[in-house]
Design goal:
The chain is mainly α and 505 residues long. The chain contains 22 helices and 8 strands. Helix content is 45%, strand content 6%. The strands form 4 sheets. Strands 1-2 form a two-stranded antiparallel sheet. A two-stranded antiparallel ribbon has the order 3-5.
Amino acid sequence: MRKYIQIISFLLAAVTLSGCENWLDVKPETEVNEDDMFNTEQGFMDALYGIYVNMGKSDLYGGTLQTALDMTAQYYSYYDISECPYGHYQTFEYEHPSCTAISDALWMRIYYCIGLTNNLLKYLDKPEAVQICSNYDYLRGEALALRAYLHFELIRIFAPDVKKNPEYKSIPYRKTFSPDIEPQLKVKEVYQEILADLTEAKQLLSNDVIRTNGPDWLGESEKKEESDDVTDKNEGYYTSDFLKTRKYRMNYYAVLGTLARVHLTLGTTDDMEKAYDYAMEVIESGKFRPIQEEHILVSGEQAKYRDILFTDEFIFGLYSAQVDAFYKSNFDESYRVEKILVNKLSDIYGQGTRDLRQTHWFKTSWGTSYLLKHNADLEYAKEKVRMITLAEMYYIAAEAHPAEAYDLLEEILPSREIHSSLPVNAGRTEVLTEVLKEYRKEYIGDGQFFYAYKRLIEEEAAILPLGINIPNENKVLVWPLPQDEIKYGDRESGIWKTEINNYEK
């Protein structure tokens, strides 16, 4: 029986929705014979590239995810909330039709990407894959890490914080490529699976060239000429081409950064130590450096090369063909009047600050501020998405190890042209308050601040920054599962039926 992989259609997405009864009726737009595709290493590479391409779609990291989460985090406002598809996230109306359409598409896209990783892993598990693929460890390591990364995104959105309710039935952790319905796992079980995938990925990527050659290494050779020998093992390319510019792929340090995030979220004493260790390994590697002032303050003909995304700090970045159009249509003042606006910058950055994030990420006109962080007119911002950055590693290390917070913040904040107000011997309460402020300054446009607040909301020290009003309520901190998932997957809806505190396991 012939087997096919669907590259363009959403057949895989329907399969990974864990229960849609009509998934077999979906007709693929394009079919590539799987047996042919995975006969060469280039086929495996193309399958991996396809995961990254789909992650960059506008309904995921190409704009939607960050914008919806940042609306929830109270970064934005809108002239007329009824005209903005993301506006109801600002008021936590997750069951409004505009919100359910967005979150359902996001859910679908993430599981589509997970389906692609599982299909790739299925073929990598075949004995002949090791002989076919000279870059086997990279292929398997990246796929496992991406699977963990994507499930981690889902669990933080659609389930309560693990510290608050580890027994809560949450999402399925899909490890196979099939239409079978996978069971909902408890929150703590999902985290166990995430850590297992990341641990194996870390081992597989232990010899990543990024550790010796750095994140911007361009390899040793370009594409093979027609006259060159081309083997079935790596058709058309030298091996080094696959290993270029590793910071735009799930590399060894990106795995460490994800592990730091996960352990920080788990939040036990042991986990905080691990979060600190992983973050510090990235920092102390010396492979990444804080943004240099001369890379931002560029004028004249070179102004288009201003690095306002701070790409020097990318531990994991993503190319997205759709991110520029998304931000132009939703944020760019020049495109049309109805735009997503940034709430008071003075609440975020303070009065009279020279913070480079404030001076270069926004445009203020007639008292109205617009996000310019993804300015497609600038070469280093075009088609790029910030996923994990060096600054985040400093903030994680500071939060996880308050005794070193002052020194850590003083290493990273001068690159933003500011200094921390944190006392040298600050206690945990002061550190958390300061770090939360820095998360808020750093994460606008990245979709990460809501997670930071969700983690810390139960902490006595988690003081809401000025201008933020995020209630500590279950139905604010947890998005509802898609209705199709509940209907066809026979899922428990959790807090959207019964409050967490009364939830029966």
